[in-house]
Amino acid sequence: MDSWENTESWEKLLSGENCPMCNDIHLKENKHSFLIKELKYSFVRLPKNQFDFGWVILAFKNHAVELYDLSPEELSGFMSEVSMVAKAVSEEFNAVKIYYSIFGALCPHLHMHIIPKYVSSDPHGAVELNNGFAELSLEEYERIITSLANRLSE
Amino acid sequence: MDSWENTESWEKLLSGENCPMCNDIHLKENKHSFLIKELKYSFVRLPKNQFDFGWVILAFKNHAVELYDLSPEELSGFMSEVSMVAKAVSEEFNAVKIYYSIFGALCPHLHMHIIPKYVSSDPHGAVELNNGFAELSLEEYERIITSLANRLSE
Predict the structure, then answer these.
(1) What is the 3-state secondary structure of chain A?
(2) Banded model confidence at residue A52, pLDDT cuts 50, 70, 90
(3) pLDDT tens for residues A80-133?
């Protein structure tokens, strides 16, 4: 997949032209993830790759790239949702720490990764979201989605 | 350095007891970094390790661990400063993308990493802040600190 190495396609991705996330981030299921809940500013999604168990993303609803592209109200609203989801993830999975990251090298559409860490996690490890691939059963995805959605509705 | 692997010392770090960042995050220079600017909610600092060239951190002034430990006003204020600093870093270093991360495995005191990426950066690479160590000259640190501080005063 292209990134900033290809200036022409990167400029298009930045501008939102043919942005893959704009196309499918609202769907109940897309190639990479399931919808957990639609909030005011973001879609909360569960990546199919649960190698980092409990990994959740919040994708900003409108096309934006950097935090400083948001209005003060959007920034505050989006981060309030990030904070609420991080708390729900921490409680759901009994995490010792939450990692929060915005990368966007492959798709710069603004999205925050919420990654719970456990006593068994390596605290010295690099953060690499494609370290491995762990697929769960459909029942297990559904259980997590339902439980997190319920926590976010409280 | 201990992390969550040692429950007793981790609990102390979470509570702020002997928190290394509370002790030295306000200093003009500490073991790891230089102060760029004091803002309302955060200290903006330049790590001495500039292996990721342009790496800057914002440390929350008071002791806190997770984003959801902050009041709505603190969260909004802190993230507004993160956004402003990210913009300054992007412009200073002519970045193609900004990475934003809160980890805290070694010191859970809330701090955000701002890491500029360049056309020459590997978009598929893991995020590892200790991939290598690059020390700059004192003159080069000072040039960056002055230039960023000026941008943040505009």
Answers:
(1) CCCCCCHHHHHHHHHCCCCHHHHHCCCCECCCEEEEEECCCEEEEEECCCCCCCCEEEEECCCCCCHHHCCHHHHHHHHHHHHHHHHHHHHHHCCCEEEEEECCCCCCCCEEEEEEECCCCCCCCCECCCCCCCCCCHHHHHHHHHHHHHHHHC
(2) very high
(3) 999 999 999 999 999 999 999 999 999 999 999 999 999 999 888 777 777 789
Please enumerate in sequence order all residues whose Cβ is within 8 A of that of A19, keeping only pairs 6 or more positions apart, or say none.
Answer: A13, A63, A107, A109
A80 touches chain B (CB under 8 A): yes
- Encode pLDDT of A12-38 as tens digits: 999 999 999 999 999 999 999 999 999
Query: Are the C-beta atoms of B109 and B45 separated by less than 8 Å?
Result: no
Say how far residue A42 (Cα) sits from the centre of its chain.
10
Cα distance between residue B109 and residue B93, in whole Å: 27
Contacts of A107 in chain B (CB under 8 A): none
Model pLDDT, residue B129: 78
- Chain B positions touching A128 (Cβ under 8 A) are 126-127
Measure CA of the first residue to CA of the last residue in chain B; give whole Å: 39
**Mean local confidence (pLDDT), A61-90:** 98
Assign B6 to helix, strand or coil. Answer: coil
The verdict on a CB contact (< 8 Å) between A87 and B70 is: no
- In this prediction the pTM is 0.97
pLDDT of residue A1: 64
Which of B68, B86, B123 is nearest residue A4 as measured by Cβ atoms?
Answer: B123
| CB–CB contact A105 B123 (8 Å) | yes
